Amino acid sequence: MTRSLGAPEGTARDGSGRSPLKKVLVRGADVLRGHRDGLAPAAGMVVLGIGVLTMPAWLPATGFLTLTDGVLAGIYTLLGIGMVLLLGYTGQLALTVNASYGIGAYATAILTVDDRIDPWLAMLVGIVVNIVVALALAFPLFRLQGHFLAVATLGVALMGYTVFEAAPVTGGSNGINGIPTLSIGSFHFVSDMAWTYLVWVIALAALLACRNLVTSHFGRAMLAVSGSEAAAESSGARPFWIKTLVFVVAAALSSVAGSLYASYAGFVSSSSFDLTLTLTLLVMVVVGGLRSLWALPFGVLGILALSAALQTYGPSVIPATGSDIPIVGYGVILILFLLVVPGGLASAGRWCAGQAGRLVARVAATPATQPAGGLYGTASSESRP
Amino acid sequence: MTPVFEAIDLNKSFGGVAALQAASISVEHHRIHALIGPNGAGKTTFFNCVSGHQQPESGKVLMNGVDVTGAPPYRMAELGMARTFQNVELFPAMNVLDNVLVGDHLEISEGPVAAMLRLPRHRRSERRARSRALAALERTGTAQLAHRLAGELPYGSQRLVEIARALVGGPSVLLLDEPAAGLTAGEADILRELLVAIAAEGSAVLLVEHDMRTVMALAEEITVLDAGRVIAVGPPGQIQANPVVIAAYLGVGAEESGEVAGS
After folding, report:
1. Which residue of A has its CA nearest to B89?
2. Which of A27, A50, A73, B76 is the most exposed place for a label (fewest CB within 10 A)?
3. Is B108 an interface residue toward A (CB < 8 Å)?
């Protein structure tokens, strides 16, 4: 009984048994069609890992991206995870990411600028401050629902920005200069390549941990809260604590992103923490897929590539456009994606994988004696509808 | 024998209109208790007041003799109460199995860090919860739907899945708001057998139901609400013959009800 439950209808079990190649094909077909969730994280890590390892080769080859974009993509991925968890899984439009990102960045900037304390320790301090702030904010904020929450968090976001601009310790729009870089033992992270790898090791670890979280009872409670708070609560999941947990996780990850940014750039100023950041992230998350952690890096890189391409080639197509052109593009992309592919690249990818899986399953089910022409014939007839 | 669950003299009004007036009920282990009454009698308000989704203005709610009046829904869940909703509150974006697993939330005690690191003990908890959820689906006859999205299911299946979610945690009190509404005859049969089995295992079952065939076949005790008041309590035979109940259902004056009952 359980066996038939574990494998939903249409699983290509029929072709199993004979040759090892067929077994591999059958398994591959199941993975592609999403029937074996257990292998998804491994596959995701392998694909993203290879993508990251080869970044120094393919990023500059695009002509408009550099390794700096690779580092930034890792930082944006860390920021985007919080938004996927909050908005995608828990259904809470909380727009305070610029504030938590800024707190992390300024913690590192202020504490390390004269080599006062170790940058890693400063990162930890940033995390702790962010968690305390997130807990303090959660109590008033999560009494609010829907658009009331969105507006209230927008207020917090603006307050955060104002503090970063006006507080005596932040340097305002002049910023803080001369922030030392991170180091492990005697190795100092200086080159963009070293930074790309460092930032992405952290980002991929965070992705994996949060993927584990969303597939656990917490993730189910998060989706339950976004589906029906009354039913979630009757099942024993406390909506307030679930929202607070996610808010705290998001703040901690943003804090790490902020600290990494400060150490990498060596300079922070308030303009990095305005609402443009929140809007950009929102577009990245929607493009990747609101409920997909694995697709997030693709959304981030896609938008970074588009914005770099617009800045490189935009002025030659439409003269007299400056650096604001990506912002116009974001709006268009946001609307297009929400209308055409609301599930983002994740749903598009899942659809393509499903099609490929069906094709592989068909190939695996074909008798081995059949000539190659027959294989392709069957496969193409399958893919037609 | 102390009742596992008791509500005493609950009062609740909305904008001056009394929805509940001194409504009481007492439910025991191993028993199926039905709450019936004409539309607008206050049955759903009663459910909401005892499950913590609404606060009664006065009166008491007791679980195992302990006063838990005003406790929020998650607290009632911790105390062993589970419920379904009149309009089926499933989580549409999750598959059926995950929906039922939410009902088992309290049985997985590991914290967020254990979940993030996927520690072995958390994996074991998840596995156990998963087999309990599959067993609950099996009992409601919806196991073959485990991997379907809840939002895509026909109405009757959604109801049965919601019942599976309510019973997966092994509640001591199970509140069901119109569980038979929208079920096919075959599904209703499964439901009836299931409720008898759940009561036999020791749970107290309290159901609001319009389908009199189900009520009369299952309930050992029936409480009748009309305009927020309890107008009758007793076994099915008595309730069927009660002139006050017949009057309330047919909407005729109490003095004429004798005729109606006699005819």
Report:
1. A231
2. A50
3. yes
Nearest partner of A332 among A312, A349, A307, judged by Cα: A307
Strands B32-36 and B221-226: parallel
Query: Is some CB atom of chain A closer than 8 A to the CB atom of B142?
Result: no
> Residue A241: which region, alpha, beta or left (left: phi > 0; alpha: psi -120 to 50)?
alpha
**What distance in Å separates the CA atoms of residue B161 and residue A229, rounded to the nearest whole number?**
17
Beta-carbon neighbour count of residue A70 at 10 Å?
Answer: 25
B140/B161 Cα distance (integer angstroms): 7
Chain B interface includes A362 (CB < 8 A):
no
Secondary structure of B66-125 in HEC code, one letter for each residue: EECCCCCHHHHHHCCEEECCCCCCCCCCCEHHHHHHHCCHHHCCCCHHHHHCCCHHHHHH
Shortest Cα–Cα distance, A110 to chain B (Å): 30
For residue A5, the model assigns a pLDDT of 41
Test B112 with A2 for CB contact under 8 angstroms: no
Interface contact B83, partner A, CB < 8 A = yes
| pLDDT of residue A41 exceeding 90 | no
CA end-to-end span of chain B = 40
B76 — contact with chain A (CB < 8 Å)? yes
| A224 contacts B126? CB cut-off 8 A | no
Specify the DSSP class assigned to residue A89. Answer: I
Over residues B73-103, the pLDDT tens digits come to 999 999 999 999 999 999 998 999 999 999 9
pLDDT digits (tens, 9 = 90+) for B185-234: 999 999 999 999 999 999 999 999 888 888 988 999 999 999 899 999 99
Mean pLDDT of A197-218: 96
What pLDDT does residue B52 have? 94
Percent share of chain A, pLDDT over 90: 59
- Using the predicted structure, report yes or no on whether residue B248 has a pLDDT greater than 50: yes
Contacts of A218 in chain B (CB under 8 A): 112, 115
What pLDDT, on the 0 to 100 scale, is given for residue A12?
A: 45
| Residue B203 DSSP code | -
> What are the backbone dihedrals phi and psi of residue B203, each rounded to the nearest 5 degrees, phi first?
-70, 150
Segment A115-131 mean pLDDT: 94
Is A223–B92 a contact, with Cβ atoms under 8 angstroms apart? no
Residue B253: CB atoms within 10 A of its CB come to 7
ipTM for the complex shown: 0.91
Q: How many whole angstroms from its chain centre is CA B129?
A: 22
